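Handoff note, outgoing to incoming analyst
You'll be picking up this chain. Sequence as last confirmed:
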Amino acid sequence: MSVPRRQLAAAAVAVAVLFVCYLRLSQTAAVTADGASNVLQAWDMLHGNLLLHGWWLSDVSFYTTELPQYMLVELVRGVGPDVVHVAAAMTYTLLVVLAGLLAKGRAGGRAGLIRVLIAAGIMLAPQLGNAATILTLVPDHVGTGVPLLLIWLIIDRARPRWWVPVVTGVLLAWVQVADSLALLTGVLPLVIACAARTGHRLARREDGQSMTGGFASCWYELGLAVAAIGSVAAAALAGRLIRAAGGYFVWPPSTPLSPIGMLQRHAGLAYHGVLTLFGADFAGQRPGVELLFAAVHLVGVAMAATAFCLAARQFFGSDDLLVPALAAGIVLNLVAYIGSQIPVNIATTREIAVVLPYGAVLAGRLLAGPLLAVRRPARIAVVSVAICTLLCYLAAIGYDAAQRPVPAEDQDLVAWLARHHLSHGLGSYWQANSSTVDSGGRIEIRAAVGRGGLLQRNVLWEAKLAWYDPGSEYANFVVLARQPSTESVRISAGAARRAFGQPARTYRFGRYVVMVWDKNLLATLSPWSGPGA
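Most recent structure output, in case you need it:
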């Protein structure tokens, strides 16, 4: 076997091991209603409803990114919480691999290897807890990084040809159909980087060279910028065509600006979120080995921060188009996050998930050269620190993979309902789709909301209108979560009695109350009366 084939085989084994580790890490977090909703949407598409007719999605559709991926997993595994875990492990494995390839660029030999190790090493071992939930569970913008890195890889590796802007524009439009956040993390960074590079070239044009000639020499950058801008209109048109053809409805993202008094708190959440993404969050980590791993991950944070500063310093003078583009993507993402009303807790860090791969790629591309230039006496120390850090990262991912998986969030509810022969009912958003998926579709719970003392259909958020048709569907019980809920429209026992009368039977177990009637509750369930009705 030739050396390249051996290297390819070794790389394939390494990727497979990473996938297994990330699958185990994903299984340390319970699948919730958000991921379960994506499973049900993909299952519906797999069974012929390709445009998701009758579906009301959230403000992010994932229609062209994660949903096709979920369909592929469901072809093998069917409906179940493992679909979310397998897809998440695939996504994060691809992120690590693509970040390494993008960091390598066209560098070969030792320089290329060091670039790959820096970028992939920084991303290698997500932390248990919040980081695992954000990076290796439901889509929530993490998966958007995969097609974005692929786009940057095409721009980086392809020679300047006319087709590159065309392909770039098509792929950017494709991603934006799934996630409008790509406007901030893909489109605008590319436009800004192309404008910076064009301006720098025009400012350095030789004496006697006309402005027209200067622009002609920048045709490639201008083409990429135009294609990126055009992708916004193309994505909007695609969304309208899908809707006009009877496809899904997606809520327009609501991004009101943050009050000035909240900016400091939001900046603190962003700082905490970045540490979480890089695995350097000390909060919630058990004393001992987990705190040690968090401390070691500060090396990755420092490397990414250093690379970002270098990128900012050479923003207008870099010959590498990706350096200003990725730096701009990080800045735009963080500024938009801090300046919005999105930051409310650590879970909203998912909105800035792309900061991790972008920072890792910058570190690989910009720090490998200086590390190789270190003189021999200091090089031994640098290599020793790098080897120790990488070994700690490998130990961290091994430790993560060794943790015990947790059951799906409502597995106990599903088992209880099956024992009592209850298969069709209503519940809050957080119990509905997740329980349906946990049971493999054998038990169907549809989401309802309490509003103004009434019980209403939750047809405007991750739900399908046909689920509430009393002519073809049935529901005879309501599940209530006994602990206080964070939902402002949660279901109450009083609202259920007002809607359906006195239940025939009421059961209490664990944190649940199950109220059962001897009739089809869908016939008297109130229609939605909120926004969009």
